[in-house]
Write a structure and sequence with these properties.
GO molecular function: L-galactose dehydrogenase activity
CATH superfamily: NADP-dependent oxidoreductase domain
Organism: Bacteroides graminisolvens DSM 19988 = JCM 15093
Strand content: 15-25%
Largest sheet: 8 strands, parallel, barrel
CATH topology: TIM Barrel
Number of helices: 11
Order of helices and strands: EEEHEHEEEHEHEHEHEHHEHHH
Structural class: alpha/beta
InterPro entries: AKR, LGALDH-like, NAD(P)_OxRdtase_dom_sf, NADP_OxRdtase_dom
Protein name: Putative oxidoreductase
CATH class: Alpha Beta
Number of strands: 12
GO cellular component, one term: cytosol
Length: about 300
């Protein structure tokens, strides 16, 4: 396992990190005992960065993760959670007010059984008025940072342009990291176009969804996946090509996403400890660069960034 610093935060985190969304039953029902064991396994295999949100499973992911964290020494991991997106009784809600952001931080700490948060993120800023993020949400989190309740502050979004806009409109040092998903994987590498910008601002880069929400998997995409049919079919052809070479596309996708040293860490999520072990073993093997080129040719340059640009 390699370790890289998130921007200038001092947090040196594993190149592959544990995303706890699965603990909320976001993708399918889970067995809680097994889910908790997956957290233990992540730590045992060298992962030291865990990301969660009150939104995942409408507080369930934080609650389940909190049960695991009770048994793990606090100095053995960095914990990231979020504010802004919530939900109850199956209904999603959003609230980016300063008041709710501060309340949410303390609520998360209670659920997670911790007394400080290493990294607090404003979650999916595309759902907010960006001016509110700049003038209200982030200042509230910076205030908590000054008090030591949270150690570092970041923002997350699918749209890279939104991340850049917010960073350009806040004082230097306000935003210490960005979390972006589906933009540094085999079928979409748009994040690469923004690396120089983020680095110039000394901002750490957290990548998520290396399987592009199922497109780069033998299982295939869920019904709600927003990608165009042409890209889904291209990824399916790429999957079959890898399968014929006895090299699972999931393995190649994981290796590709963690292989760029300019991307601090890549998050993947599972509630199965065996999946944790498998993914860690994969990234410790040498990547087949020739197969990467073949897959990217099958998918096609034009399609790589078509579905997630806006």
């Amino acid at each position: 396992m390699q370790y890289r610093e998130i921007g200038k935060t001092g947090m040196k985190v594993s190149s592959l990190s544990f995303g706890a969304s699965s603990l909320g039953g976001v993708f399918h029902d889970i067995k809680e005992k097994e889910a908790i064991q997956s957290v233990f396994t992540a730590i045992e295999t060298g992962m030291n960065f865990i990301d969660v949100s009150p939104y995942y499973g409408h507080y369930k992911a934080e609650t389940v993760l909190g049960k695991a964290l009770k048994e793990i020494p606090r100095n053995s991991y960095y914990l990231s959670t979020k504010v802004g997106r919530y939900g109850k009784d199956g209904v999603n809600t959003w609230d980016y007010s300063a008041k709710r952001a501060k309340e949410s931080v303390y609520e998360s700490m209670d659920r997670l059984n911790i007394d400080y948060i290493d990294l607090i993120n404003v979650h999916d800023i595309e759902f907010a008025d960006l001016n509110q993020i700049v003038n209200e949400t982030l200042p509230a989190l910076v205030e908590l940072r000054e008090q030591g309740i949270v150690k570092h502050v970041g923002i997350t979004d699918l749209q890279l342009e939104n991340l850049k806009w917010v960073i350009d409109h806040v004082p230097s040092g306000t935003v210490e990291s960005v979390l972006n998903f589906c933009h540094y994987c085999l079928c979409d590498d748009k994040l690469a176009d923004f690396l120089d910008y983020f680095e110039s601002k000394e901002i750490g880069i957290i990548n998520a969804s290396p399987l592009s929400m199922g497109m780069l998997s033998e299982r295939g995409v869920p019904a709600w996946h927003p990608a165009p049919v042409s890209l889904i079919e291209a990824c399916k052809r790429a999957m079959e090509h890898c399968k014929a070479k006895n090299y699972p596309i999931e393995k190649l996708a994981m290796q590709f996403s963690v292989n760029n040293p300019r991307v601090t860490t890549t998050l993947f999520s599972t509630a199965n400890p065996e999946n944790v072990k498998k993914n860690v073993a994969w990234i410790e093997e040498e990547m087949d660069n020739e197969l990467v080129n073949e897959v990217r040719e099958i998918i096609g340059d034009q399609q790589r960034v078509s579905w997630a640009n806006s």
